[in-house]
Amino acid sequence: MVQNTELADWVKKYTKELLSWALHKTSDLQVAEDLVQDTFVVAVEKYDSFRHESQPKTWLYGILNNKIAEFHRSKSKFANVSLENDNILDEFFDEKSHWRPGTSPIHWNPEETHLLDNEEFLQVFQQCLEKLPEQWYSCLTLKYLEGKDATKVCQDLGVSPTNYWQMVHRAKLNVRQCIERKWFQKNEKK
């Protein structure tokens, strides 16, 4: 009976935070809700192995993060990524994945950090990210928005380092073109 009461308390206490985290990691409310539900199912199944050496919240987040990683791995297995036009990437990016001089998006001053404070720009940026193939989106968000290193991203998505870097390059190129079209050219006409 103690187990049922404690688990019910955890559901009430942590669902909102877990859902917020899962939504942040997946950008899909339905998927986030399913992952949180799966987290609590695992917590019920594995409750006897929880030794109370950590906080319940920490334990639940560990389960949820594993579920999120499984979700991204399963998505990447079904993504069909084209590997054509490799040479176009070399025009824009150097061997360290940085923009080559003179190839950054039009009218884009890299010193203009205020764009990240501009709500309209952030909406355009998010729209551009969401247009990417799922696997490319996962690579960019895990690497640049969540700060994971390439090895961890490859492991989470179940891809080779070569495939990972190709996807990152293509994703950055696509986001660049999208931002140019939807933000810089639009604002240039004003």
How would you characterize the overall build of this protein?
- α2 crosses α3, α5 crosses α8 and α6 runs antiparallel to α7 (150-157).
- This protein is elongated.
- With 190 residues, the protein is mainly alpha-helical.
- The chain contains 8 helices and no strands.
- It folds into 2 domains: 2-78, Rna Polymerase Sigma Factor, Chain: A; 86-188, Arc Repressor Mutant, subunit A.
- It has helices at 2-26, 29-45, 56-78, 86-92, 119-130, 134-145, 150-157, 161-188.
- Helices cover 69% and strands 0% of the residues.
What features would you highlight for this structure?
mainly alpha; Arc Repressor Mutant, subunit A; Rna Polymerase Sigma Factor, Chain: A; 190 residues
Overall shape: it is elongated
CATH superfamily of the largest domain: Winged helix-like DNA-binding domain superfamily/Winged helix DNA-binding domain
Number of structural domains? 2
Q: Would you tell me the structural class of the helices and strands?
A: mainly alpha
* Strand elements, count: 0
Strand residues, percent: under 5%
Rounded mean pLDDT score:
77
CA-based gyration radius:
20 Å
Secondary structure: helix percent: 55-70%
Largest sheet: none
User: How many helix segments?
Assistant: 8
Stretches where pLDDT is under 50 for at least 5 consecutive residues are 78-88
C-alpha end-to-end distance: 66 Å
Instruction: Give the name of the CATH architecture of the largest domain.
Output: Orthogonal Bundle
CATH class type of the largest domain? Mainly Alpha
